[in-house]
Every structure is written in structure tokens, then in C-alpha cells.
Design goal:
The structure is a single chain. By secondary structure, this protein is mainly α. It has one domain. The chain contains 10 helices and no strands. About 6% of the residues have low confidence.
Length: 243
């Protein structure tokens, strides 16, 4: 019976990387979260009658905290996915070595779902189980529906999400550095935020599939709805507590 050492298991996982899809999701996660959160905060403060100085202090503090928090979350969540993959991979190896009949049956069921029947299925089944790596990869992908995560991916995701969050957070704050009029700056912040949200959705559709206009508008609506919620909260607090 074949043996796969734990070291080989980790090396195999490290050969894979998230690629452009993972980078895209990290970028969208960070930029949208940073922009929407800061936009909601500054609109809430502006609607409650706060001064430009207070708004700048609060939003810059939120920017820093959000950037660090999102980077940390990206690191821990991606690392958890890697640890889960490696743990399940070891379990699959143990099952392939100790209960190969059961694992062979699972491969046969997968092939049957793909439309392979009779002699054709048995022949392909024999070919797969004769190659331990192919057998293991197939079980991980199509039985457990797990994708490998490279050892470097947690740090990479943390960096991309953190930077994207910082960039997204800065966008709605920029007008407050240009003008001292809070109302004008708030309107300009909404316009800039809408433009960036649309651009992020447009880029997502260009990189993947779908209508660029529909994706852009969807991202814009979702983001501005969250910003509007911040505005309404600010209005409610101001009218209720007079602050």
C-alpha cells in the first residue's frame, strides 16, 4: 500500500496559490469595506452637526482601526482555511491507506455523477486509484469541496485586504481636506464613493463574467445604501439626543 508523508502533504498544498480570483476577492473585500464604513461614519457625523475637525479625527481613527482589523481578519481566516485543508487532507490519506475500499467506492460515485458507467467507469476508477496523488486531489476537490491554500497566502491576503481597506477608506475623506464646508464635503464624499464603488464593480465584471454596468451599479447601490444607513443613524441621534 502507498504511503504519503505529512511533509509531502504540506509541500503539495504550498504549490498552489489563490491566483487572480483570490486577489480579486481580497481587493473587493478590503476596498468596499473601508469605503462603506468610513462613508457611513462621516455622513453620520456630518448629519448630526459635527465640525470638520471632529469628522476628520473620527474618520482617520476609523481608517486606521479598520485597516488593521481587516488585515488581521484576512490573515486569521485564510490561515484557518489552510489549516482545515491540511487537516482534512491527512484524514483522507489515512482513509485511503486503511479503508481503501470505502474510498474507492466514493470515487466510483463521483464518476457515476459525471456520467461514467459500466466498463468505462471501472477502467477510469482503476487508473485513478493507481495514482495516489490524483486520487487524493480528486477526493479533496470533489468529495470535500476544498481548495488548497499556500503557506504564503495568509500574509498575502492580509497585505492586500489591508492596503485595499486603507485606499477605500481614504476616498470619502479627501473632500474634507479640500474644503471647510461640511455639507459640500459630504456631498463630494458621496460622489467620490459612488464613483469608486462603480469602478470596483466594473473591474470585478471585467475580471470575471457579467455585465460591467450591472456589476458597477450593484456595487454602487449596496455601498451607498450602507452609507445612507450611517446618515440616518446620525440624523436620529441628533434629533433624539441633540448631539
Amino acid at each position: 500500500m502507498f504511503r504519503i508523508r505529512p511533509r509531502s502533504v504540506e509541500a503539495e498544498a504550498e504549490e498552489h496559490h489563490a491566483g487572480s480570483t483570490g486577489l480579486l476577492s481580497d481587493f473587493i473585500l478590503g476596498s468596499q469595506d473601508g469605503l462603506v464604513n468610513v462613508l457611513g461614519i462621516l455622513l453620520g457625523l456630518a448629519s448630526s452637526g459635527q465640525t470638520r475637525g471632529v469628522i476628520l479625527i473620527a474618520t482617520i481613527a476609523a481608517l486606521a482601526a479598520e485597516t488593521i482589523s481587516m488585515g488581521a481578519v484576512a490573515y486569521t481566516s485564510t490561515r484557518a482555511r489552510r489549516q482545515l485543508y491540511l487537516s482534512e487532507q491527512r484524514k483522507e490519506i489515512w482513509e485511503m491507506e486503511h479503508i481503501p475500499g470505502s474510498e474507492r467506492k466514493e470515487v466510483s460515485d463521483i464518476l457515476a455523477n459525471w456520467g461514467f458507467e459500466g466498463e468505462e467507469r471501472e477502467k477510469l476508477l482503476d487508473q485513478i486509484v493507481a495514482k495516489p496523488k490524483a486520487w487524493l486531489d480528486l477526493m479533496m476537490a470533489f468529495e470535500l469541496h476544498l481548495a488548497p491554500v499556500a503557506e504564503s497566502q495568509p500574509a498575502r491576503s492580509a497585505m492586500i485586504v489591508g492596503l485595499a481597506t486603507a485606499v477605500g477608506s481614504v476616498i470619502p475623506v479627501l473632500p474634507f481636506f479640500v474644503t471647510t464646508d461640511v455639507a459640500s464635503a459630504a456631498i463630494a464624499a458621496v460622489v467620490l464613493a459612488a464613483g469608486m464603488l462603480f469602478a470596483v464593480g466594473w473591474y470585478e465584471a471585467r475580471t470575471t463574467v457579467g455585465s460591467v454596468w450591472r456589476a458597477g451599479l450593484r456595487m454602487l447601490v449596496i455601498g451607498l445604501a450602507a452609507g445612507l444607513a450611517g446618515y440616518l443613524v446620525g440624523v436620529g441621534i441628533h434629533s433624539t439626543f441633540g448631539v
